[in-house]
Amino acid sequence: MKWWGDALGRGASAQFARVGRMRRALLLLAAAACTAAALLYWRQQSDDRPHRPLQALYAGIEPQWTWVCRNYRCERLLASESSTLQSLQTCNMLCDSTQLWPQPTGPVSLATAVVPVRADGFKLQIVTSPSRDVSDHLAEAFELMKEDMRVLERNMGADSRPSDYGSPHDVHVRVAINGSGDPRMRLDTDESYKLALRPTRKTLVADITAHSFCGARHGFETLSQIVWMDPYASSLLILEAATVVDAPRFPYRGLLLDTARNFFPSEEILRTIDAMAASKMNTFHWHVSDSQSFPLRLDSAPQLAQHGAYGPGAVYTPDDVRAIVRHAKLRGIRVLMEVDAPAHVGRAWGWGPGAGLGQLAHCIEAEPWSAYCGEPPCGQLNPRNPHVYDLLQRIYTEIIQLTEVDDLFHLGGDEVSERCWAQHFNDSDPMELWLEFTKKAMQALERANHGKAPELTLLWSSRLTRSPYLERLDSRHLGVQVWGSSRWPESRAVLDAGFRTVISHVDAWYLDCGFGSWRDSSDGHCGPYRSWQQVYEHRPWTEENGGGGGIGNAAPLVGGGAGGAGGPGGAAAWRVEGGAACQWTEQLAPGGLDARVWPRSAALAERLWSDRAEGAAADVYLRLDTQRARLVARGVRAAPLWPRWCSHNPHACL
Q1: Which sign, positive or negative, has the C-alpha torsion 590, 591, 597, 598?
Q2: 147 lies in which domain range?
Q3: Residues 6+ apart with CB under 8 A from 571
Q4: In this structure, is residue 164 part of a structural domain?
């Protein structure tokens, strides 16, 4: 029995030992599993970019920061040094600066209290509308605003994370339009609006009043700018109350894109229009053709793209154009399409003899090119061939139908080679031929526009817009887009003669300058680079200079149609419609457009909307940096203003 008991004891001890070892193994496995789960959770929280605060994207390189408002400026601190964790975005929105772009021209009152919101919590009520068309456009534009907010939520993963600010509030947006029943952007469109936001229990009420769809859409844009994603709260926030009264200083606020030197797919054009809308620009000037290519496929003249496009994949079809026009229209933007003539034409016009139409153009790809044009290839239309004007009428008719713009047109009309026409018409003065062509092109345009000239037809500034030829042009219907230097006498002459003018000075608003010449090792025709500060500070209607002629010596101008202050010496009232930045594309291709154009064009947008006397002051840097962040959030690859450290510590960089 003792042996059996000893054996039993030894067996039990061994059994308990095995159980102990198993228990320890299970405990170790459980501990390892818990550690793995904790590590996995930590990695999900720290490595999943959409779920991390913006300031923590570079974990291991940057510490965790907080921002506090001191003396009306946001200062960065280590989170451990402050009892409050506040994101840079929220600090910027609440600390002194309005963060609106462009800066409103009327009274602005913004609360410093915030509440959380969700994109789907925004509801639209159309209180009054002058037409069903306007109501439909309002509903679609409102959904576009909400989609921009949804993008912010998706990027931050806000759908799955609770907010530190409590339950989200609904926002009831009420719109009242008392004015035009036409949703299109037109020369006489009243773009003014008023926005009033106020809290009512768990709901915010935003009242937007305007005189046009475009004005109400601007109100949506301003409303969206007082909504932002707080990465620390993982929620959209909105100011609790706001009042904004606003209207643009100039009625024409444009951006030109050249798609002939290099082709840009429709997606890049649509994204450019999105960025324009974010800054309340209203005219997309589409320089669609030039001597290098004719990428526009027209039903009325398919031979032009057939002979002039770079290839089948580098063509805009009528459906492409309609899609771009609709995209722009919903964002308060008109598409001003320019088929340049009589110069800047090329191989696209070389098919005339084979079609029994004779020579439609002369000097096509003539050599040496430097004797006939500013850059190769050369070519210009035949002013004595009546088939040219028949073709132009068909082209103009289709452009008006596609763009739905019938009160504004652009004929082109720049850099005609007198030598080319002199060789083919040695019995005529080339300048007289140029005047004759312009007159007949205008007649073709009137026929295309149902027998009525557009309210404003633009020409590029040129020798034709200088004396003694300027006086022979019809200032009632013709306007001039002035592209020369602001110090060139032609700028002053056009204004003094009473022509409605769109300013695109090469020494301020040409965005292609500063990249050298593509033909040789020189600096190019228009260096140096135009920074956003130079774009912003160019105010040719107010500058005064004791030097030679030019706009710099002029009295202040007032934008808008018939408005304007008289020039010195009793000159006629100056009529500046506004301005446009120009992006020519000899050295630009798809993929590089966004950073070349933005945020410089946004700087022009505020100059033309607000025209405040201040230059690129500290507040402008702060607001433009915020606007650039908005563009990036919408998929626009805008260039940075400065190092990211300066976004974190802006006042240390100013």
Answers
A1: positive
A2: 65-246
A3: 495, 496
A4: yes
